[in-house]
Amino acid sequence: MRLIVREDPKAVAYYTANYVRLRINEFRPTHRRPFVLGLPTGSTPVEVYWHLVDFYKRGELSFRNVVTFSMDEYVGLPKAHPECYCSFMHRHLYDHINLRPENINMLDGNADDLTAECQRYEDRIREVGGIELFLGGIGPDGHIAFNEPGSSLESATRVKTLAYETVLANARFFGGDVDRVPKLALTVGVGTVRAAREVLLIITGAHKAVALAKCIEEGVNHMWTLSVVQLHPSAMIVCDEDATLELHVKTVRYFKSIEQVQEQLIGRQNIGLKGSISRLHHGSTGTPGAQTSDSQVLTDSDMSSAHSDDGMSTTSVTPTSPADLPADGSGEDCAEPNNGHSPAATDGTPF
User: Which PROSITE patterns match (predicted)?
Assistant: First the structure.
């Protein structure tokens, strides 16, 4: 597991969106081999979506061969309701990018048979070959999606009763009226998230500091469902400084030192985007020519010559290590940053 600490929520949002951009471009998706992306709802990812829209509008990212799966949906809320997660995803992301409608997958909280709807969702995920990258946030009690404390760590997509703390937290989206908040939801399971080939979680704010500490410094526990990422072979948490307040100082220093070693001693040119070390060039601090994995680092020419199967050129990008991703919106992988962040963050919204 990797822990990336950035100064504030804006830096976290930019880092996360830029990582997603690089992963999609590195993958070079085609119609027959799409990039399958799991996406969260709630307030945490909104600014991430603004940046993704901004990348698309600047021609740095295409969603033409991306397939998405939303994490959850309220039961009984009309699709036209502004707080329905179907409306949420369209409002903040889908209506502003070139994602094909047939590639958008969302749970139907108004289905006649909710159990069958959950099974349909799991079947659809398998049909497209599984989720490549699952992006998620957490609740103050450490839950992923609507997998409340006590959820099975092997659970699949299902109907879930929301905990009272979650209902209270979501009341702000319903005028502060707890009675208007749905009490049931459809949610992907902890096992569904674990099955993704990569998991990236966003955690910001002091109110989530206890959850982060429980999930990183203590054992795997179904009362803190986020802790399951300890078992995942490719998991990354991106958090702000406030979210680390309950962590031991040595824990934060350890993860920051790993990033520093990757950046300064190993060298960004030797680190794959997901953190794997594929080779060390002559002249680097490490052993010249050493190889620690079978993965290959893609070059600029590899990416610039790539084309999708529908004739569209992909965006040229140099894959980088997580340490190379800018914390403040600056760096060679970003186009004309604006005061430390892309225009999406500084203008409030790109649409």
Answer: GLC_GALNAC_ISOMERASE (PS01161)
